[in-house]
Design a protein that fits this description.
Strand content: 25-35%
Strand order of the largest sheet: 3-2-1-4-5-8-7-6
Radius of gyration: 16 Å
Structural class: alpha+beta
Largest sheet: 8 strands, mixed
Distance between the termini: 33 Å
Helix content: 10-25%
Order of helices and strands: HEEEHEHEEEEHH
Mean pLDDT: 95
Shape: globular
């Protein structure tokens, strides 16, 4: 299902959009086990309030097959929990400039690990209809115990008694990343894909490359 982007005029409108779209996020599908093309999405910020949406697409061999950027002035204020309304417009433009359609969106941010259970990964997944997951560098909501030190160890992120993600160790002895569902992908499959995409570094390779692209 594709949904048209809805531009909010106020903070209350933005929160209402998240609440309205939240039921459209598919959190029950297992998602594809085999992923051909994975897109990493990140946004860079400049001092003049310019936002740069960057998308890098890798194939199953971790080869870059396409990439795109889009720069524009931020359309929405800097409000925690509502970053999607600053970041999605340039990301949608960058996605539209790709010559391929990704099988999975890996977003630098959150999915259901969000105050309204509808972070960037959920929002982009619903808008595009593509499977999406959120992988964040830092914890945002909820609580979790530290996972064991070995690669692949994880502990649940719990918010109001509900599991909304996992703190996942992608490198032994290195601090975890924070994985949550976005759309059309189970939490277990999301973590499996993150481990597949982190053969050398803490962050998934598509996000790491998108972060670099957004800064150039």
């Amino acid at each position: 299902m594709r949904i048209t982007w809805d531009e909010p005029a106020t903070v209350d409108e933005a929160a209402a959009i998240q609440s309205r779209l939240r039921p459209l996020a598919d959190l029950t599908s297992e998602g594809p086990a085999e992923i051909g093309l994975t897109a990493g999405l990140d946004v860079g910020y400049a001092a003049d309030d310019t936002v740069t949406g960057a998308v890098v697409v890798l194939d199953a061999s971790s080869r870059v097959v396409d990439q795109a950027v889009a720069r524009e002035k931020a359309r929405f204020p800097y409000v925690p929990g509502l970053f999607a309304f600053r970041e999605i417009p340039p990301l949608l433009t960058a996605l539209s400039r790709l010559s391929v359609t990704p099988d999975l969106l890996v977003c630098d941010g959150y999915g259901v690990a969000h105050p309204r259970r509808f972070g960037l990964a959920c929002h982009l997944g619903v808008l595009t209809g593509l499977p999406a997951i959120g992988v964040a560098k830092t914890a945002f909501v909820g609580t979790h115990e530290p996972p064991a030190e070995e690669r692949g160890a994880w502990t649940p992120i719990v918010l109001d008694g509900e599991t909304v993600g996992r703190a996942l160790r992608t490198r032994s002895g290195v601090k975890p990343v924070y994985v949550s569902q976005g759309h059309r992908m189970s939490l277990g499959n999301a973590c499996a894909q993150v481990l597949r995409l982190t053969p050398r570094f803490r962050l998934p390779e598509p996000i790491r490359l998108a972060d670099r692209l957004s800064r150039t």
